[in-house]
């Protein structure tokens, strides 16, 4: 049960992170000038890559959810297993989107260099395509939120 609670909590953290970017960070950055956007996004992306985020949320959600599936496969299974498996599939979708879309976009804007030395900040921002980044982040937000719901139902089902 501890692993399943950890899966639910870490998935909730990820839903919160993606949700915060969707309804606060990106709308706030959208209202800034090009230099502020590029510099702030670079700083946010560098800051988020840390052990607390990577282990306590991003990778933790995958590991604990996968472990929940394995434990339910070898244990009581039932309806709880189906909900845990659904959460795992949803989070695998999030991982694929992150690796295929968001991370390459993040890396490209960081590769543009120091905003004080960039001569075409508007071009860097345009090539970044913040609308595309935000759309895919919204998909991650919805998927992780749905995964939290699945894991909460898993807890209820497993508690019976």
What can you tell me about this protein's structure?
The chain has 160 residues and is mostly helical. It has one domain. Helices cover 87% and strands 0% of the residues. The chain is built from six helices and no strands. The protein has helices spanning 2-30, 34-48, 51-74, 78-111, 121-128, 130-158. The longest helix is centred in the middle third of the chain and has 34 residues, at 78-111. The radius of gyration is 18 Å and the shape is elongated. The mean pLDDT is 96.
Topology:
Elements (H helix, E strand, L loop, with lengths): L1 H29 L3 H15 L2 H24 L3 H34 L9 H8 L1 H29 L2
Helix pairs in contact: 1-3, 1-6, 2-5, 3-4, 4-5, 4-6
Considering the chains and any ligands shown, give keywords for the structure.
transmembrane helix; Anthrone_oxy; mainly alpha; membrane; 0% strand; single chain; 6 helices; Membrane protein; 160 residues
């Amino acid at each position: 049960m501890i692993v399943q609670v950890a899966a639910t909590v870490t998935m909730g953290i990820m839903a919160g992170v993606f949700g915060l970017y969707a309804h606060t960070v990106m709308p706030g950055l959208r209202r800034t000038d090009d230099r502020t956007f590029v510099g702030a996004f670079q700083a946010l992306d560098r800051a988020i890559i840390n052990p607390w985020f990577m282990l306590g949320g991003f990778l933790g959600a995958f590991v604990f959810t996968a472990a929940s599936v394995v434990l339910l496969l070898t244990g009581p299974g039932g309806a709880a297993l189906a909900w845990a498996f659904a959460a795992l599939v949803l989070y695998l979708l999030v991982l694929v989107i992150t690796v295929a879309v968001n991370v390459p976009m993040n890396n490209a804007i960081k590769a543009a260099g120091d905003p004080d030395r960039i001569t075409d900040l508007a071009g860097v921002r345009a090539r970044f395509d913040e609308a595309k980044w935000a759309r895919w982040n919204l998909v991650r937000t919805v998927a992780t939120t749905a995964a939290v719901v699945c894991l909460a139902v898993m807890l209820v089902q497993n508690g019976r």
